[in-house]
């Protein structure tokens, strides 16, 4: 047993860290540039809808702006994450702040996407009952609550490194960070619960819309809505499922369930790769923005009078 413990402590991760340094450069730089551009454009686009189409598209626009702000925050944290992951932390408070911003933006996106999915399901399933619940003020209040919750939930980050003297940001976490008291609430409330809510709402919404396709005239709008829901669910699963699987595997490592050096190295590589590629989520959300804007424009065109109707209206007006 003591020999296994000694081998575990002497297990080197230098090759993994060296490889990840190259991967981060290849992934984070394009993600930063593209994510910065796309999310600024998204905020600008939905702000325009919010101003010009108030209050018809206010609820969805506020949610989308909130999601874009979280994604933009994650994008802005990437250069600091990339730089500070490879050097000793200059000061604990600086490292804590960067880690807070990164994880707050990640879980802020998780909860915002979850509420968007829930909101859309309620509108599709109970359109008349929830109309009074979707006022701009209430949606804005929900978004503010998300910000409060994710910042309050970031308190364990302040003790990520415990009493470790030398460490790099996002590495060398203390044993307390991987304790069941910290890990399981994070895994359940930060991912599994939102995943369950989103999976249920998305599947039910798509089922309802598919059944309605032959019964209503707005077939194009319904197809756009289906693509929006499917894209949101796909982006969510691809972005966050591997990361939280990696967290679970690392939890097993840090609590002594996995002690073989090669397995620990592979798990460390998988976790860092999944976190690295999950950052692309801030660019993948653009597909959700695209389908939502397309849905908005389809709905606007559907409610605009045709040229024939305008000519008839002008004719009637001139006669009067």
TrEMBL record:
<dbReference type="InterPro" id="IPR017452">
    <property type="entry name" value="GPCR_Rhodpsn_7TM"/>
</dbReference>
<feature type="transmembrane region" description="Helical">
    <location>
        <begin position="20"/>
        <end position="42"/>
    </location>
</feature>
<protein>
    <submittedName>
        <fullName>G-protein coupled receptor 55</fullName>
    </submittedName>
</protein>
<dbReference type="GO" id="GO:0004949">
    <property type="term" value="F:cannabinoid receptor activity"/>
</dbReference>
<keyword id="KW-0472">Membrane</keyword>
<dbReference type="GO" id="GO:0070374">
    <property type="term" value="P:positive regulation of ERK1 and ERK2 cascade"/>
</dbReference>
<feature type="transmembrane region" description="Helical">
    <location>
        <begin position="269"/>
        <end position="292"/>
    </location>
</feature>
<keyword id="KW-0812">Transmembrane</keyword>
<comment type="similarity">
    <text>Belongs to the G-protein coupled receptor 1 family.</text>
</comment>
<feature type="domain" description="G-protein coupled receptors family 1 profile">
    <location>
        <begin position="38"/>
        <end position="289"/>
    </location>
</feature>
<keyword id="KW-0807">Transducer</keyword>
<dbReference type="GO" id="GO:0005886">
    <property type="term" value="C:plasma membrane"/>
</dbReference>
<feature type="transmembrane region" description="Helical">
    <location>
        <begin position="181"/>
        <end position="203"/>
    </location>
</feature>
<keyword id="KW-0675">Receptor</keyword>
<dbReference type="GO" id="GO:0035025">
    <property type="term" value="P:positive regulation of Rho protein signal transduction"/>
</dbReference>
<dbReference type="GO" id="GO:0045671">
    <property type="term" value="P:negative regulation of osteoclast differentiation"/>
</dbReference>
<dbReference type="InterPro" id="IPR000276">
    <property type="entry name" value="GPCR_Rhodpsn"/>
</dbReference>
<dbReference type="GO" id="GO:0007200">
    <property type="term" value="P:phospholipase C-activating G protein-coupled receptor signaling pathway"/>
</dbReference>
<feature type="transmembrane region" description="Helical">
    <location>
        <begin position="224"/>
        <end position="249"/>
    </location>
</feature>
<keyword id="KW-0297">G-protein coupled receptor</keyword>
<keyword id="KW-1003">Cell membrane</keyword>
<feature type="transmembrane region" description="Helical">
    <location>
        <begin position="54"/>
        <end position="76"/>
    </location>
</feature>
<dbReference type="Pfam" id="PF00001">
    <property type="entry name" value="7tm_1"/>
</dbReference>
<feature type="transmembrane region" description="Helical">
    <location>
        <begin position="96"/>
        <end position="118"/>
    </location>
</feature>
<dbReference type="GO" id="GO:0045453">
    <property type="term" value="P:bone resorption"/>
</dbReference>
<keyword id="KW-1133">Transmembrane helix</keyword>
<feature type="transmembrane region" description="Helical">
    <location>
        <begin position="139"/>
        <end position="161"/>
    </location>
</feature>
<keyword id="KW-0325">Glycoprotein</keyword>
């Amino acid at each position: 047993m003591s020999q296994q413990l000694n081998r575990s402590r002497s297990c080197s991760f230098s090759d993994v860290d060296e490889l990840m340094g190259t991967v981060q450069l290849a992934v984070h730089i394009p993600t930063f540039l593209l994510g910065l551009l796309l999310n600024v454009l998204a905020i600008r686009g939905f702000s325009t809808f919010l101003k010009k189409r108030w209050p018809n598209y206010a609820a969805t626009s506020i949610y989308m702006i909130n999601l874009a702000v979280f994604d933009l925050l994650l994008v802005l944290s990437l250069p600091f994450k990339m730089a500070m992951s490879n050097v000793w932390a200059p000061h604990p408070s600086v490292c804590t702040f960067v880690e807070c911003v990164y994880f707050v933006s990640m879980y802020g996106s998780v909860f915002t996407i979850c509420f968007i999915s829930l909101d859309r399901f309620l509108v599709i399933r109970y359109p008349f009952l929830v109309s009074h619940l979707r006022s701009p003020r209430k949606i804005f209040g929900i978004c503010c609550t998300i910000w409060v919750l994710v910042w309050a939930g970031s308190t364990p980050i302040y003790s990520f490194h415990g009493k470790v003297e030398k460490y790099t940001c996002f590495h060398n976490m203390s044993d307390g960070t991987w304790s069941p008291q910290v890990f399981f609430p994070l895994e359940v409330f930060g991912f599994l619960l939102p995943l369950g809510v989103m999976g249920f709402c998305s599947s039910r919404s798509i089922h309802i819309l598919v059944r309605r396709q032959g019964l209503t005239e707005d077939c194009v709008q319904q197809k756009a809505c289906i693509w929006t829901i499917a894209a949101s669910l796909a982006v969510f699963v691809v972005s966050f499922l591997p990361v939280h699987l990696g967290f679970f595997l690392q939890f097993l490592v840090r609590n002594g369930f996995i002690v073989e050096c090669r397995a620990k190295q592979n798990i460390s590589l998988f976790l860092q790769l999944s976190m690295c590629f999950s950052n692309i989520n801030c660019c993948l959300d653009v597909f959700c923005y695209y389908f939502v804007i397309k849905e908005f424009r389809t709905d606007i065109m559907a409610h605009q009078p045709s040229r024939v109707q305008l000519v008839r209206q002008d004719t009637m007006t001139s006669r009067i």
